[in-house]
Amino acid sequence: MGVIYLVRHGQASFGADDYDVLADRGREQARIAGAALAARGIRPDRLVSGGLRRQRDTLAALADAAGWDLEPRVDARWDEFDHTAVLDDFLATTGRSGDFTDSKEFHRAYLEAVAAWTTGAAAAQETFAEFDARCTAALEAVAGDDTAVVVTSGGVIGLLAARLLGGDATRWAQLNTVVVNASISKVLSSGRGLTALTFNEHGHLEHDRSLVTYR
């Protein structure tokens, strides 16, 4: 029987020219998550991350804080879907402007774009079906009789949680928006298959509400 801990990357640089860079708060979140896992007595046999910089840097900070001396493995199947491409394709298809006046307007358009993507009404370079398949394959690849810690992204974690709980794309869209940065989700691997034990744990961040972020 094994356990897989899925950790979302720390807060990235939302609104900056390069989103794929951890903000200072994101590094702090990663260190706190690592210390929290170590305090629970977790000693992983494997460390894995997606190939995105924010994922790799989160794993490095997390492992350092936890005191884990393991060589991490990078698997690009844990990468997030390209939300920029999904939104751009939606805007091009609908003829809408991408000049948003505030974050709420952007968020509404983003949710519409994701909904269209999941139904196949709007397709970016990677379809939702392809995203679904690679995330499932990534999880199956780390399933085993040992303990793995994987740093990935909110869309991936939300999708896997939805699938493990028997949900569809609509359920994923709901979970995708609530995954907290540096939160921890736990999956049990056994002879009976994969079972979701917890989703989006972030009590280790709640001592400071400014650490509970979603982007």
TrEMBL record:
Write the record's keywords in alphabetical order, separated by commas: Hydrolase
GO MF entries: hydrolase activity
Question: Which Pfam family, any one of them, does this sequence belong to?
Answer: His_Phos_1
Give the matching Gene3D superfamilies. Phosphoglycerate mutase-like
Note the PANTHER family from the entry: PHOSPHOGLYCERATE MUTASE-RELATED, SERINE_THREONINE-PROTEIN PHOSPHATASE PGAM5, MITOCHONDRIAL
Listed name of the protein: Histidine phosphatase family protein
Q: Which species?
A: Flexivirga aerilata
Tell me the lineage of the source organism.
Answer: Bacteria, Bacillati, Actinomycetota, Actinomycetes, Micrococcales
